[in-house]
């Protein structure tokens, strides 16, 4: 028996997300009194693989195969399934990000394993296996029992408090049988030099209250001084004031930073669906009745174009 | 080319979630039902592509696993421009159950492209599309934010964490779509609404499938403590609170 955790890498490097996943998996392994096996697919050096051991992986299985250079959902699924079977995994942990959403459902069918999508805490019990997940875009939660022998959980990003817990671990290279690859990738465009919205611990977001696309300098500067990513509400990206990647909400990105600062955003329910899991929310809005203040921890009733420059100065003073 | 769109009938996105029967069932009283926003965008893109004859799209079908109460939403899809609709007559139990029903239908009714949304507004599972693909042993592309057809080949843009990729895929394939696939959802015109009444909405019997998961009950989120208000002149105080009280900067 084991708990298998699939860890993604970016150009051979793991991110905080990967460690969060391994750590989460190891806690479930503890509940089941079994071991944690981390699977890595791609060209990752041993030094980097070892880092997974710092978050309580007992074993690290590394798969490096040229056919897997690009994401083909079917091929990746069959590799994860093969390793899961080899390791007799009864629980499989995957990230609830683009890659996880592509793979977890396929794996669920391949292994006839019930899927708990977007969990943010440990199962309430393992017998029956009961998970807690968001439903209705965060307006409610549900307790769900997974009845199948194998269970798959996808973990919402930045939702699980984790810490280092180094264990002695074994690293094993594994050569899977990879079938035909039916998707081909012709062009890759990566955002470089920017803090990605999904990774950011702090996010500064602007809404229609910012008035126009050329009013974004204070948001960008505040992001700069805080080491934050920038985001926006849907109308802002629809208007072309900001790129689509920045749109957060039910129909945009769903994020959970430690700090989310909303300037000139009314706080419509569809917007909150994307940001309400943030640990701390700050709202700056001229309208004292704006619904964003119901979701916020700290609020300023005021004009964002005046408050933000003061905010920047105040942050500079403490940095 | 034949396109199938998996259509989920969901509560309007502004609906307040309420539950009945000891918090085991969603309270549907007064709820407005809509096409899941992603499915609506998938339908929009399919119709846009069909208007160009060079794309040789013969047919756009929508499919829903659900009871008769899903039909008004399905009619809406027909009014927007789907050619026909299929309803598999059973209450959805979980994503695996829904996907198994759709996959079974596809075995005797093949399609070239199958669209699903990246997430339903009710279960938030991000699951059905990928599951259908695995049942069919067909390729799938997830997080699709752009789609074109060139010389009978589909050209897909998909989002990856930290960027975008141009992808092509063998058909039949399942595409799980998200923001960007179409700009604004298409709205039904009067003529479309009239025509929708005459378009076929076929009801199909379900197959025997066991669900793998079961919702025990629902819970409301913990109420948030009241927002701490800071005077606009005292931004320094806010920064101090963020640093020393919330400890987030
Ligand atoms: C199916 C569906 C899905 C949707 N999905 C999303 C989604 O994913 N994300 C999303 O964001 N929206 C989404 N929406 C749209 C949503 O309903 C709101 O319309 C939108 O979030 C409002 O954006 P906003 O807050 O920027 O603009 P507004 O609602 O116009 O609010 C602007 C705010 O700025 C304040 N303001 C004005 N001037 C100033 C100033 N000088 N300083 C400070 N504050 C000021 C105003 O008081 C107001 O509160 C969706 C809608 C639907 C129907
Ligand atoms: N009952 C259903 N009938 C048809 N399609 C569905 C159903 N439920 C979900 N889907 C499709 O699967 C997508 C993702 O839903 P979910 O897996 O519930 O997040 C939706 O956008 C639909 O395209």
Overview of the molecule:
The complex is a heterodimer of chains A (319) and B (249). Chain A is of the alpha/beta class and 319 residues long. Chain A has two domains: 2-173, Rossmann fold (3-Layer(aba) Sandwich), CATH 3.40.50; 202-318, TPP-binding domain (Rossmann fold, 3-Layer(aba) Sandwich), CATH 3.40.50.1220. Chain A has nine helices and 16 strands. The longest helix of chain A has 17 residues, at 16-32. The relative contact order of chain A is 0.11. Chain B is of the alpha/beta class. Chain B has a single domain, classed as HUPs (Rossmann fold), CATH 3.40.50.620. Chain B is built from six helices and 15 strands. Chain B has helices at 37-50, 71-80, 95-108, 128-136, 190-196, 235-244, and strands spanning 2-6, 9-11, 19-20, 25-26, 33-35, 59-65, 84-88, 113-117, 140-150, 153-160, 163-169, 173-177, 201-204, 213-219, 228-230. Chain B has a nine-stranded mixed beta sheet with strand order 11-10-9-12-8-1-6-7-13, with helices on both faces. A two-stranded antiparallel sheet of chain B has the order 2-5. A two-stranded antiparallel sheet of chain B has the order 3-4. Chain B is globular and about 65 Å long. Chain B starts with a strand and ends in a 5-residue tail after the last helix. Bound molecules: flavin-adenine dinucleotide and adenosine monophosphate (AMP).
């Amino acid at each position: 028996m084991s708990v298998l955790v699939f860890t993604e890498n970016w150009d051979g490097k793991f991110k905080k997300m990967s460690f969060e996943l391994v750590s989460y998996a190891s806690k479930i392994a503890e509940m089941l009194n079994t071991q944690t096996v981390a699977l890595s697919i791609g060209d990752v050096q041993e030094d980097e693989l070892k880092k997974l051991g710092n978050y309580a992986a007992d074993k690290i299985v590394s798969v490096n195969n040229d056919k897997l250079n690009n994401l083909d959902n079917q091929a990746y699924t069959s590799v994860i399934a093969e390793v899961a079977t080899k390791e007799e995994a009864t629980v499989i942990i995957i990230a609830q990000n683009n890659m996880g959403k592509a793979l977890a459902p396929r794996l669920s069918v391949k292994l006839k394993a019930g899927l708990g999508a977007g969990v943010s805490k440990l199962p309430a019990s393992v017998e029956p296996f009961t998970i807690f997940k968001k439903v209705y875009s965060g307006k409610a939660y549900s307790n769900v029992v997974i009845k199948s022998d194998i269970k798959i959980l996808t973990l919402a990003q930045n939702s699980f408090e984790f810490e280092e817990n180094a264990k002695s671990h074994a690293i094993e290279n594994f050569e899977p049988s990879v079938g035909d690859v039916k998707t081909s990738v012709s062009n890759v465009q990566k955002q470089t030099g920017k803090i990605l919205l999904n990774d950011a611990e702090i996010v500064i977001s602007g809404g229609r209250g910012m008035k126009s696309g050329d009013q974004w300098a204070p948001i960008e500067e505040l992001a700069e001084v805080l080491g934050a990513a920038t985001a926006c509400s849907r109308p802002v990206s629809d208007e072309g004031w900001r790129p689509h990647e920045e749109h957060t909400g039910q129909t945009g990105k769903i994020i959970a930073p430690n700090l989310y600062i909303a300037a000139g955003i009314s706080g419509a329910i569809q917007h909150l669906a994307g940001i309400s899991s943030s640990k701390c929310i700050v709202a700056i809005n001229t309208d004292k009745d704006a619904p964003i203040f119901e979701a916020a921890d700290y609020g300023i009733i005021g004009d964002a174009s005046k408050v933000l420059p003061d905010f920047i100065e105040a942050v500079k003073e403490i940095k | 080319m034949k396109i199938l769109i998996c259509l989920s009938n969901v509560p309007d996105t502004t609906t307040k979630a309420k539950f009945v029967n000891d918090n085991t069932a969603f309270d549907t009283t007064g709820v407005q039902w809509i096409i899941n926003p992603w499915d609506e965008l998938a339908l929009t893109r399919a119709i846009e592509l069909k208007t160009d004859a060079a794309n040789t799209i013969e047919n756009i079908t929508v499919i829903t696993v659900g009871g008769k109460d899903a039909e008004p939403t399905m009619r809406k899809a027909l009014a927007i421009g789907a050619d026909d609709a299929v309803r598999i007559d059973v209450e959805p139990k979980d994503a695996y159950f829904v996907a198994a029903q759709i996959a079974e239908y596809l075995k005797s009714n093949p399609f070239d492209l199958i669209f699903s949304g990246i997430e339903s507004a009710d279960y938030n599972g991000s699951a059905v599309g990928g599951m259908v693909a695995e049942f069919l042993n067909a390729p799938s592309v997830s997080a699709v934010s752009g789609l074109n057809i060139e010389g009978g080949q589909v050209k897909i843009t998909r989002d990856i964490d930290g960027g975008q990729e141009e992808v092509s895929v063998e058909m039949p394939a399942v595409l799980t779509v998200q923001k960007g696939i179409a700009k604004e959802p298409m709205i039904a015109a009067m003529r479309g609404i009239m025509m929708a009444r005459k378009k076929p909405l076929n009801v199909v019997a379900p197959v025997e499938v066991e669900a793998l998961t079961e919702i025990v009950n629902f819970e409301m989120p913990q109420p948030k403590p009241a927002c701490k208000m800071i005077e606009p002149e005292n931004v320094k105080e806010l920064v101090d609170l963020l640093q020393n009280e919330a400890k987030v900067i």
